Amino acid sequence: MNFKKTLRYVFGIFSVLLVAFTFLLLGLKQILDQSAVKSLVKEKIEHFVNLNVNYTSVETILFPFPGIEITGLRIEDSSKLICSIESIVLKFDLSRILNQEFQIRSVEISQGEIAIERASDGSFPIQSKFKSDAEELEEGREKAEEGPQALFRLLPKKLKIDGILLIYSDFSNQTHNEFLVKELEMKIDKEDTSIHLNLFGELNKNPINLISVTSLVKNDWNFSSLRTNSQLKMDHFVLSQMGDFIQIFPKAELTDAYFDVFVKLDKESENHVSLEVAKFLFTGVKNKKGDTFPFFSMSTKLMLQSEKQELNLREFKMDYGKIANLSATGEYFKDPGSVSSFRLASDRLDVDKLLTYINLLSATDLSKSNYFKENLDSKEQKKNPTPTSKLPDIAVDLDLHQLVASGRYISFLKGPLEFKDPNLQFKNLQIGIFDGSISATGKFDLKSMYLHTDAKLTGINVEKAIGSATKDKLLKGKLRSNATVDLYLSQKGRPQTTLRLKSAFHIDKGQLLGYANFIKPVAEVGKLFNFSGASGDSTSFESIDGSILLINQRVQLHSFEMKGVGLNATGSGVYDQGGKIDMKFTVALAGVVGRAVKLPIIYRGYYGKNFAFIDPVWLATVYTGTMLGGPLGTVLGSMAGSKASEKVDETIGGVKNTFQSIKGFFTDDKPSSKTTK
């Protein structure tokens, strides 16, 4: 019995609620069917702007929230169509609609076009159509000044757009761009002052996807209050779809070029911002000849700490096809009192080819694009000289392998660099080159362009080193050297004229080849001394020691000493500008009478034209003995040769008066001071 009473009671309450809800719906429909409500959108738009607003129909919606649907909305300026929307659905807040207060809960806009124009004088004609005295505009300004929370209360909770084409025509720079909003959903949380955004669109038919959650944790419009977690993705973004943009690259052909991008931006605290370029791939680049360049890809992770003015490079990776790669980490401090530090690493880096690619894209002419040309003109008018400030100190640790620079292969480049404005300093910088290594310490003044370095060379393959500068085969062996280099790399004049080089060197187990084989003339007379160490084409040696001094493009060779097979040699001389040579070497051979025979070898003339020859004075003296014939002549010739050898170091000059020179050798007299020079 009690159960039946309870059931009737529940049924009665339900019936009352149902009747009440029915009357509520009828009341809502009656309210929404009022002509004032149906003309709400038209009145609101015309209240803001001086434009003609028309629509096809307005229908009432009751579920799931009460509202209206406007179809065939058209907004025109005279006869020019500005906006055409197939459907707009406005849903209202149920709690306020009964009091005939139409607080918009959500907005849904589907299918249509919105055209925005910029006139040739740079103005937007649509701006003149807005009514500056509109109450809602003034209310919006006041709410914005109060802070985000007051403004957010005026906004709908949800905005949904699909199939809306935004057309932007700029007659000031003759550009035309279209952005298709394929799908946009925005949720607004008035309590948290946050916006959740999900956008799928196309910019000039290039797909773009943006996902973002943004909020303001304080009731302030400032950076410290901002929080965001956003992602931007663009796949197969074709540059040629961007009007005349590609024309600013005069050396590149970018008709088929496109890029893929995936970027993440996070700000989860007051002062920390994280930016991650998870993917950047650029491909399809060609030069004007039609040569295709490899793909370029990059990824990076950055952390900005605004209170410390610190930029943390957590990761940087770059690949240029199979030609080059580079990775980097480090920290950058804006404070000049702090030292920023970075580490660069690579296992292949063809600098030449990479620079060719960079130069292809960096050689820009912004005047080729109407948009950039307009901005260049405005910047020129506002251009003011900016005061230079001291750059922060930066330390870089290099760990690079398999480099190619200026056509030269460098197996490794390792060590520290320090930038202290204006000097770039390096200490024990290790360079692997020509099968050996160089350890360099010095500095480069970026202001005066002056370079000073002290270098230690070990195990350098001399043949490869010379081969990098000339095709001539001159010398083989392993070089060990201590060198000091001073150079001004000024853009004015020729830097080589300022080069100063001082070096002491040692070469192990090698060969004199070609033009450098000053022993070659010895092979022609070697039978006189039972010597067969020189084959004529090359001369082997155990070691060579010496020093050189280069000043004003003039190389001075000092203290040259060679230890060979069955012979030794000493020498000195000068290699001057234009390939002019003036050198003298003395080759010591074992004589048949037990005394060393010294052969004076002379280089005089020009490189490649005049070859090494035996001093004709010495040669004539030796022949004095050999022309006598027989054993006695050989002995006398050797003795004469020994006698002449003792005078070699005193007659280093060239033979300009042959008679006087021969007389000096034979009579043991020095040339007269009256000898013609």
From TrEMBL:
Keywords: Membrane, Transmembrane, Transmembrane helix. GO terms for cellular component: plasma membrane. The chain crosses the membrane at residues 7-28. It comes from the Bacteria. Residues 4-176 form the AsmA domain. Pfam families: AsmA. Coiled coil: none annotated. InterPro entries: AsmA, AsmA-related. GO terms for biological process: regulation of protein targeting to membrane. This is AsmA family protein.
